Automatic annotation (TrEMBL), chain A:
<feature type="domain" description="ABC transporter">
    <location>
        <begin position="22"/>
        <end position="273"/>
    </location>
</feature>
<protein>
    <submittedName>
        <fullName>Dipeptide ABC transporter ATP-binding protein</fullName>
    </submittedName>
</protein>
<dbReference type="InterPro" id="IPR003439">
    <property type="entry name" value="ABC_transporter-like_ATP-bd"/>
</dbReference>
<keyword id="KW-0547">Nucleotide-binding</keyword>
<dbReference type="Pfam" id="PF08352">
    <property type="entry name" value="oligo_HPY"/>
</dbReference>
<keyword id="KW-0813">Transport</keyword>
<keyword id="KW-0472">Membrane</keyword>
<dbReference type="Pfam" id="PF00005">
    <property type="entry name" value="ABC_tran"/>
</dbReference>
<dbReference type="InterPro" id="IPR013563">
    <property type="entry name" value="Oligopep_ABC_C"/>
</dbReference>
TrEMBL record, chain B:
<feature type="domain" description="ABC transmembrane type-1">
    <location>
        <begin position="98"/>
        <end position="307"/>
    </location>
</feature>
<comment type="similarity">
    <text>Belongs to the binding-protein-dependent transport system permease family.</text>
</comment>
<dbReference type="Pfam" id="PF00528">
    <property type="entry name" value="BPD_transp_1"/>
</dbReference>
<dbReference type="InterPro" id="IPR045621">
    <property type="entry name" value="BPD_transp_1_N"/>
</dbReference>
<keyword id="KW-1133">Transmembrane helix</keyword>
<dbReference type="InterPro" id="IPR035906">
    <property type="entry name" value="MetI-like_sf"/>
</dbReference>
<keyword id="KW-0472">Membrane</keyword>
<dbReference type="InterPro" id="IPR000515">
    <property type="entry name" value="MetI-like"/>
</dbReference>
<feature type="transmembrane region" description="Helical">
    <location>
        <begin position="104"/>
        <end position="126"/>
    </location>
</feature>
Length: 682, 317
């Protein structure tokens, strides 16, 4: 069904004569907090025209979701309220409607799809019930009619066996399937507009591509206008007709996708584009970053709000910039938009990365041999099932290099990292750290090894103890492991560590909740560095961060490797991020290594069909490239690890699979020199 | 499902055995026994020989292990023996009082749920308004006021307003429901107030929590009527944690209400328990403790099964 869509069709010229379907005019939204009044949205205007896809882009806290919630009349009460402006839907001002008029509109004319499919459906109500609700409320259908229409809707969003699945509950659906259900709910009453707030952020890359293709296809087929809210410029390049970029509660730039990606006219848009590592460009040195943090909206700066972080800052930026009209509908809120390209060209290019070349013949720092992990999981009625989370995984990490481990959720990559650190005992196999098998290491030997192997976790929000100051967090391991003799010495070393990761030593007296996500992740890295390790497992260290901060953290890791000769195991699901930072890459699927190669070889010529599919599904922030790419969306979902397919576990989704593939477990073999793949078709 | 229930019931056996072991031997550790209390109380001068004869009659002269074994054998065969004090079969002693205690407990639970669900929900919905403050004052008072004192106020009120005082004899629900209810509703109210306060406070916080959930936002985004958002989407989720509290409190009440029974002149399990303890009536105490343990275990099982009905995630795992 998805293949019928012709992505390459030219984008319909915006029918400027047409009246907008929804028009947000000079909207201001305020929240009362214990620390004062926050103006989360401050004079924002955007339009959506019938049938188009408009994307609102910006980092967390820029007000993009808040403006969408204001449209729906769903601002958190009583703290949030619309403080000014209009939201025109047709000839009605939504800010003036009564609660019951708004309720009639919601779900019928404007529907919304939310970010978190795992929590956005009610866990105690059946899917059928949740789908039927708007049909019965808005369209007055009876139970039978609603059920028939619900079956139709589930079919429309690509859920097989719809009649049976209607009686199931959300926990029986995977994340991607739940997001399909959310889309089906949004479609129930044939709305004129769907607002999708980060609809794919929580999903794996192949599922993300499926969901986005589905939304685009349905909106075109049914003539529904789509507003996609996202922080990921890559995903909108393929799907959005127009973009609105927001920063600190304001619109900083708007225009068509072609205009903004090819020739951004605001330094923030430019920064967003340049701070993401890209699969379609050669690996650069350090990433471009946007320095600093977004301003605190409790007391926003006067003048241009981006000035503090802007490389183009000048005296003119003291004044509030209006949205300057540029050519053909592109508008930018930068006083110096005309100077942007010139200034960019004058900037020195990033220095190339000094290639960390492993010296031949030297033994690798870490060797993993035939590692396996079985989990016994309850499968109901007191029975247990066996999940082989990791199966026969082997690799080497040479000293001073980074090995990237990439794969979708549930592929076993985190379990591998945990077994290397002996946080999870392995079922069988060996982990050799400098030749020592850590499984058989004594408690005393392990204590010594722990000093040399550290970890940085994914979630900087939950991996720091909220009741310990940053200083205490950093001091604790130093005192426990006698890295510092006393409290004063530990304080001194902590200050040095904070400086090393780009924070000020004064941070030591603060608590985690007072820090931003990026700052917390820097603290997490500092904590790992406190042990002066030679090896760090980075488990998705940047996936919870905004793109500009993600670039800062990746640059920090690169810098640490170059200056300290550190060795990394870098676990991630983002192919572009892994590529940027790794010398060698291991691709995992359902607990097995399907491909292993040097970074450049892998991306130049991916051999395994799964690697190819992953690369196909990864978005590239360039509309011209994206629209020319065929919609080769990987079908289906990863099978349940409780009941994996026979033979090659990938054969159920593989376009090249034949009957043979179900019979043979393909060994990982060297297809090209140094390039391994586990596929019998090669 | 049946498998699960059987498994849970089987798991009760070691738990109940431990309870039996502890109760039996702890009772024997305490100095003095029923014979002393019976014969030497009030300064009676009874010869040692009489006391020994009485001990032999009651089986207290046998080794402890034998006594314990006899008791266990009795329990397994549903023969709980006779009260050491009255000589009546224990099943009879408990039987005539259990109905009353269970009825008061169940009525209190009904009263509590009827009060707590609307109160807790309204309090959460109008958080930090005067309604919320009022509910919070009422529930705090419910926790602070002892049930027996509230019972005394109720009796005083009934006496002065209607010149009605609790009857001395207990009428079974099946002989005369009106008389029975008019007698037991007052203790149920007195106990139910505290019960309601506990549940309402629990429910208030779980409703507040549920209202923050993403699926409530989804429901509103679908245009669901606000009333349905509360009744259909919020309450079933919010009630889950409250059910645990309701169940535990019910089991607690079924074990008898010592002071409240006294105030309302009821001959329930609570009073029986106090009497048994003051008389060192070992056989009766042991059996009462076992009965209460069984009640707790069974109520917990029912709560867990109810969870499965209300939360599909539990059933399917």
């Amino acid at each position: 069904m998805l293949n019928t869509l012709d992505i390459a069709r030219p984008v319909a010229a915006r029918p400027s004569a047409q009246a907008p379907l929804l028009s947000v005019e000079n909207l201001r939204v305020e929240f009362d907090t214990s620390r004062g009044r926050v103006r989360a949205v401050d004079g924002v205007s955007w339009n959506v025209y019938p049938g188009e896809t408009m994307a609102i882009v910006g980092e967390s806290g820029c007000g993009k979701s808040v403006s969408a919630l204001a449209v729906m009349g769903l601002l958190a009460k009583p703290a949030g309220r619309v403080a000014g402006g209009r939201i025109m839907f047709g000839d009605r001002d939504l800010t003036k409607l009564s609660t019951s008029q708004l309720r009639e509109l919601r779900g019928r004319d404007i529907a919304m799809v939310f970010q978190e499919p795992m929590t956005s459906l009610n866990p105690v109500l059946s899917i059928g019930m949740q789908l039927a609700e708007p049909l019965r409320i808005h369209l007055g259908m009876n139970a039978q009619e609603a059920r028939e229409r619900s079956i139709e809707l589930l079919g429309l969003v690509g859920i097989a066996d719809a009649a049976r699945r209607l009686d199931q509950y959300p926990h029986q659906f995977s994340g991607g399937m739940r997001q399909r259900v959310m889309i089906a709910i949004a479609l129930t009453c044939n709305p004129k507009l769907i607002i999708a707030d980060e609809p794919t952020t929580a999903l794996d890359v192949t599922i993300q591509a499926q969901v986005l293709e589905l939304m685009k296809e349905l909106s075109q087929k049914l003539g529904i206008a789509l507003v996609i809210i996202t922080h990921n410029l890559g995903i909108v390049a393929r799907y959005a007709d127009r973009l609105t970029v927001m920063y600190a509660g304001r619109v900083v730039e708007e225009g068509t996708a072609e205009q903004l990606f090819a020739r951004p006219r605001h330094p923030y848009t430019l920064g967003l584009l340049r701070s993401v590592p890209r699969l379609d460009r050669p690996r650069a040195g350090l990433l471009d970053t946007i320095d600093g943090l977004p301003p605190n909206l409790l007391a926003p700066p006067t003048g241009c709000r981006f000035a503090e972080r802007c490389f183009l800052r000048a005296a003119a930026c003291e004044a509030d910039p209006p949205l300057f009209d540029l050519a053909e509908g592109q508008r930018s809120a930068c006083h110096r938009h005309a100077k942007l390209e010139q200034a960019l060209a004058a900037r020195p290019a990033a220095p190339p990365l000094p290639e960390a070349a492993p010296s031949d013949g030297e033994a690798p720092l870490l060797s993993v041999r035939a590692l396996r992990k079985d989990f016994h999981v309850p499968v109901g009625q007191g029975r247990h099932g066996l999940v082989r989370a990791v199966d026969d995984v082997s690799f080497d990490v040479p000293r001073g290099t980074t090995l990237g481990v990439v794969g979708e959720s549930g592929c076993g990559k985190t379990t591998v990292g945990r077994m290397i650190l002996r946080l999870t005992p392995q079922t069988s196999g060996e982990v050799l750290f400098e030749g020592t098998d850590i499984a058989s290491a004594s408690a005393e030997a392990m204590r010594k090894l722990r000093l040399r192997m550290q970890v940085v976790f994914q979630d900087p929000f939950s991996s720091l103890n909220p009741r310990m100051s940053i200083g205490d967090t950093l001091n604790e391991p130093q005192l426990v492991y006698r890295k510092a003799r006393n409290r004063r010495e530990a304080d001194e070393r902590s200050a040095e560590l904070l400086r090393r990761v780009g924070l000020v030593p004064e941070m030591a007296s603060r608590y985690p909740h007072q820090l931003s996500g990026g700052q917390r992740q820097r603290v997490g890295i500092a904590r790992a560095l406190a042990m002066q390790p030679s090896f760090i497992v980075c488990d998705e260290p940047v996936s919870a961060l905004d793109v500009s901060v993600q670039a800062q953290i990746m640059n920090l890791l690169t810098d640490l490797q170059n200056s300290l000769g550190m060795t990394f195991l870098f676990i991630a699901h983002d192919l572009a991020v892994v590529r940027h930072i790794s010398q060698r890459i291991v691709v995992m699927y359902l607990g097995r290594v399907v491909e292993a190669a040097d970074c450049d070889d892998l991306y130049r010529e991916p051999l395994h069909p799964y690697t190819q599919a992953l690369l196909d599904a990864a978005p590239v922030p360039d509309p011209t490239i994206e629209r020319q790419r065929a919609a080769r969306v990987l079908k289906g979902e990863p099978p349940s690890p409780l009941n994996p397919p026979s033979g090659c576990t990938y054969h159920t989704r593989c376009p090249r699979a034949t009957a043979e593939c179900a019979g043979i477990v393909p060994p990982l073999r060297e297809v090209r020199p140094g390039h391994f793949a586990a596929c019998i078709k090669l | 499902m049946l498998r699960y229930i059987v498994k849970r019931l089987a798991l009760m056996i070691p738990m109940l055995f431990t309870v039996a072991l502890l109760t039996f031997f702890l009772l024997r550790v305490i100095p003095g026994d029923i014979v002393e209390v019976k014969l030497r109380a009030d300064g009676g001068n009874v010869s040692q020989e009489v006391i020994e004869r009485e001990r032999v009659r009651l089986g207290l002269d046998k080794p402890l292990v034998v006594q314990f074994g006899d008791w266990m054998k009795g329990i397994v065969t549903f023969d709980y023996g006779t009260s050491m004090w009255t000589g009546q079969p224990i099943s009879r002693e408990i039987g005539i009082r259990l109905g009353l205690s269970m009825q008061v407990a169940v009525m209190a639970a009904i009263v509590a749920v009827l009060i707590a669900v609307p109160l807790g929900t309204v309090s959460a919905l109008f958080r930090d308004s005067w309604i919320d403050y009022l509910v919070r004052i009422v529930t705090i008072a419910g926790l602070a006021v002892p049930s027996f004192w509230l019972g005394m106020l109720i009796i005083l009120g009934l006496l002065s307003l209607f010149n009605w005082s609790p009857p001395v004899t207990y009428t079974s629900f099946f002989t005369d429901p009106i008389a029975n209810l008019s007698q037991l509703i007052w203790p149920a109210l007195a106990v139910g107030y505290r019960y309601a306060a506990v549940v309402a406070r629990m429910l208030r916080s779980s409703v507040l929590e549920a209202l923050q959930e993403d699926y409530i936002r989804t429901a509103r985004a679908k245009g669901v009527f606000e009333r349905l958002v509360i009744v259909r989407h919020t309450l079933p989720n919010a009630l889950l944690p409250a059910i645990t509290v309701i169940g535990l409190e019910l089991a607690f009440l079924m074990g008898g209400l010592v002071v409240t029974e006294q105030v309302f002149n009821l001959n329930g399990i609570g009073r029986l328990f106090v009497e048994a303890v003051t008389r060192n009536d070992f056989t009766l105490i042991q059996t009462l403790v076992m009965m209460i343990a069984v009640m707790f275990a069974v109520v917990n099982l029912i709560v867990d099964l109810l969870y499965g009905v209300l939360d599909p995630r539990v059933t399917n795992q």
